[in-house]
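Let us work through a complete example step by step.
Step 1: write down the sequence.
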Amino acid sequence: MERQQWHYLQAQFSRIDILVRREVRRWVFAGQDPNDDYRGMYVTQAEAEALLERPFGTSWGQWIELPAEEEAAFETERKAAQKEIDKIAKHLKKTGQIPLLEKLAKNFGLSPTELDILLIAIAPAFDTSYERLYGYLQDNVTKRRPSVRLVLDLLGAPGVDQFELADHLIESAPLFAHGLLEQIIEPPPANAHWLNQTLHADETIIAWLRGHYEHHGLLAGQVRLEQVTATETDSILAGPSIEPLSAALQATESPGKLPIIALHGPDQLRQNAAARLLADTTGRPLLTVGLKSHIKETGYKETPSNEPTSVEQTIRLALRDARLTGAIAYLCDWDVCLNIDNHAPSNLLTQLSDHPDLVILSSERQWQPKGIQRSRPILWQNFGAPTYSQRQTIWQHYLHELSDNELTVPQNELENLAGQFELTSGTIRDAVAAARDAFNQQRPNTDHRLPITDCLFLSARRYSNPRLSTLASKIEPRYEWDDIVLPTDQRDILHELIATVRQRNKVLDEWGLGKKLTASRGVTVLFAGPPGTGKTMAAEVIAGELRLDLYKIDLSSVVSKYIGETEKNLEKIFNEASSSNAILFFDEADAIFGKRSEVKDAHDRHANVEVAYLLQRMEGYDGITILATNLRGNLDEAFTRRLHFAVDFPFPRAKDRLHIWQTLFLINVPKSDDLDLSFFAEEFELAGGSIRNIIVGAAYLAADNGQMVTRDHLLHATMRELRKMGRLVGDKPTFEQS
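Step 2: predict the structure and record it as tokens.
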């Protein structure tokens, strides 16, 4: 702290010294022995008789008038002390400073008398000699802090006139309402009446007068005071969003009319950036306080008890410290204060409305004020997940900020990252850092080193919602385009699907088609065809091409015979998937879909409700949802019309089956030179899934015999597969060609 600030504080304490010395002199003239270390611990007969003679409402000192010359000397000292105070204050103001004690009095609206009460209370924290003096003047050597009685003796007039100071010493008075002082009720035998209550100064106030901020213990680990200098990151994350807020602040006519700024949305990092920009714009410190640790997870509940809750005390302390330091109060995790209807309790709103300075609130949900008449306006600003163009900028920014110059990513890959992962800015930052770590941890100059782009996609997937794996099976893509055998038209549809996913942000956002022509950003797909024809393989190819996670949900396990349970199961899946950026692959869709028929009972009606609910959630999901069914004819046409893509997977013809045999027979598998795969393709009408099983089974047989795969191995495995499928061995299988 600047030396002159100390001199100012010392000069103020010199006035308190004069009051204390004057009172001690009065006690001496009243016959009270200052050398008695056991004062107040016993009462003599003479002292009892003197107490009976003492006028009502007076102390030993107030009962006595000092000689005129001593009174004149004390008055001369008082004037000299005040002159020194004024001199130091003038010097400080010339250097652009305000005395800390004067600033405190102004910030909290303290009168000169209240400032003197505060000085009396904090004096022992600066000079321990006051402790013994206070013990002497309170007739109790163990009482080292001033009581209400001592303050009345030092500052008040004799007799009942001293109680004119009572208004400064009650709970609603500024010193106590703002938490600068608190009254401690003394335990027996002191008796707990008002006069004996001890005045305790908050350590935060004492530390601040020493020249630094020291938070209250209740705010431990949840508070940060900083003089903000906005960074490039702050401007990128929240720059455009604060323009209307800054304009509203500039238009405010007086500090007392400043609004409450309510930031809300899932992107906490952008909210923090907005608060920092506002603090930097106004040139004010920012006092950030988290509320989450001060309340149970069940949320804030108003209580009729007179005892304030932890969160109420936290907010009161935060607003007090904001006044003390001249900072903007930034209260995070405001959600914990909201009830089930998204209303903030009236007592907390009253605290905010009574605060004369700017307050910024941060919450995930938008809430509603209710229950009080307030004059302060509330300015709302939503910080949802960044838009497509914002995500591009944020990915680029953190790549530049967190990585060295060698890590460059092509623009089209940045566009794919931004388009396929709807992440918050904080998650993007973490994903870039994790990708950088993974890339740098690889051995240099190796053939299997992943490029930085692949590391970024992998990291982005990992930072998407991981809890979906508890409700669905994650599938690691194993197949590429060369592995899948489909007619040209079906392959073209799959390519169009991928193009739609990659370009939807440009079409919907930049070109504006999303405003009126589409109800959702999601992509809904139907895969229809017999078992083993490549539906799951196609989903894996799409996931691999887009570099997205693929989760498989068996609808037969989701559907419940109990009314309402199916919807609950689907609700859990889509809620967890909402931030996963994953492809949802619903297999066995026949379990829930069927042709719409006449409704005969409650179960028929509910079956239609389940279908409608699934369609609604699919359309509301911003990612890709794929429905797989073995029998397309069981699906209602009204449903299929609302899907973006429908892909039929026909049973493979002979030439397609040969391609499948050749593709699945990996080059590392040893096989006899005379093995004729065309024979198996022509003779056995099997889908790709069955062919895969046969090749694997034949390979195990060959390995066990210690030889390469032969025609006999394949024939044996084929017979096993046909029997497993329930088909007669020896009959040429026939299937309806699609």
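Step 3: interpret the result. Residues 403 and 510 are 29 Å apart (CA to CA).
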